[in-house]
């Protein structure tokens, strides 16, 4: 089980409620700051996820913690006829809806408010499920992953894109410097919610990655679990399937 980190340490709200509040607050600025924080490399990582999904020729896809819909929009490059983006933050979803409408993708992508730990779908519904930078925000990681396994079709593919920590010198030291000092400073200067970017940094530092997350996925019941570190290990793409 991952260590729990919350956005607002003095709040009596639980993690799920705090994460919802945080993303509602930063929804309008999220896309721009995300590009700055990742130096735009997150676009390259998402494209790799799209290629992995595309290779399986899915008819329908669920993108959990879809946020403003960046990955859901990119997934229209696959053969999928239906893409559902789900998130607990209506503020983030509304930004996504505007982007989808501007790109005239309303007929393919549907943005749905919902809880990743209580998915509003029948068993064995989706050919492919993705989560980009969202699993570390689950209040109960194991419950969320179990729900994903439930709604994934047998032989379907599940792909996670999540931050991780480099293990080799000098990338390990550089990452610690960036996440401890630079990332929170960017958030403090440019964001209306200073706690948000401190939380994003802290949650990444304690979240299980690599073989530790692989083992959690296997314990939940996923098969064919693999991890592919990206950009010196600052992010990792995980793939898994359902028997």
Describe the structure in your own words.
The structure is a single chain. With 243 residues, this protein is α/β, with parallel strands linked by helices. The two termini are 23 Å apart. The protein has helices at 15-38, 41-54, 70-74, 90-102, 141-151, 171-190, 194-206, 211-220, and strands at residues 60-64, 82-87, 109-113, 126-132, 152-163, 223-230, 235-241. Methyltransferase required for the conversion of demethylmenaquinol (DMKH2) to menaquinol (MKH2). It comes from Winogradskyella haliclonae. This is Demethylmenaquinone methyltransferase. Its EC number is 2.1.1.163.
Question: What structural class do you assign from the helix and strand content?
Answer: alpha/beta
Q: Number of DSSP strands? A: 7
Question: Helix amount, in percent?
Answer: 40-55%
What is the 3D form? Answer: globular
Q: Report strand %.
A: 15-25%
The run of helices and strands is HHEHEHEEHEHHHEE
State the distance separating the first and last CA atoms: 23 Å
Low-confidence stretches: none
The major pleated sheet works out as: 7 strands, mixed
**Helical stretch tally:** 8
For the residues shown, what is the average pLDDT?
92
How is this fold's topology laid out?
Layout: H1 15-38, H2 41-54, E1 60-64, H3 70-74, E2 82-87, H4 90-102, E3 109-113, E4 126-132, H5 141-151, E5 152-163, H6 171-190, H7 194-206, H8 211-220, E6 223-230, E7 235-241
Parallel strand pairs: 1-2, 1-4, 2-3, 4-5
Antiparallel strand pairs: 5-7, 6-7
Helix pairs in contact: 1-4, 6-7
């Amino acid at each position: 089980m991952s260590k729990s980190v919350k956005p607002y340490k003095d709040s009596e709200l639980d993690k799920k409620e705090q994460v919802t509040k945080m993303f509602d607050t930063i929804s309008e600025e999220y896309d721009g700051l995300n590009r700055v924080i990742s130096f735009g490399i997150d676009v390259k990582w998402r494209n790799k996820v799209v290629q992995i999904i595309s290779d399986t020729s899915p008819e329908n896809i669920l993108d959990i913690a879809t946020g403003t819909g960046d990955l859901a929009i990119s997934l229209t490059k696959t053969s999928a006829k239906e893409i559902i983006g789900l998130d607990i933050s209506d503020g983030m979803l509304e930004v996504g809806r505007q982007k989808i409408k501007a790109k005239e993708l309303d007929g393919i992508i549907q943005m749905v408010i919902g809880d990743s730990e209580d998915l509003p779908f029948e068993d064995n519904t989706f050919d492919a499920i993705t989560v980009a930078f969202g699993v570390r925000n689950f209040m109960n990681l194991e419950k969320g992953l179990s729900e994903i396994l439930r709604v994934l079709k047998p032989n379907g593919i599940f792909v996670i894109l999540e931050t991780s920590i480099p293990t080799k010198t000098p990338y390990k030291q550089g990452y610690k410097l960036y996440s401890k000092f630079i990332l929170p400073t960017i958030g403090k200067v440019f964001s209306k919610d200073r706690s948000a970017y401190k939380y994003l940094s802290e949650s990444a530092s304690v979240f299980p990655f690599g073989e530790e997350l692989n083992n959690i996925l296997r314990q939940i019941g996923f098969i064919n679990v693999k991890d592919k570190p990206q950009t010196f290990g600052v992010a990792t793409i995980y793939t898994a399937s359902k028997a």
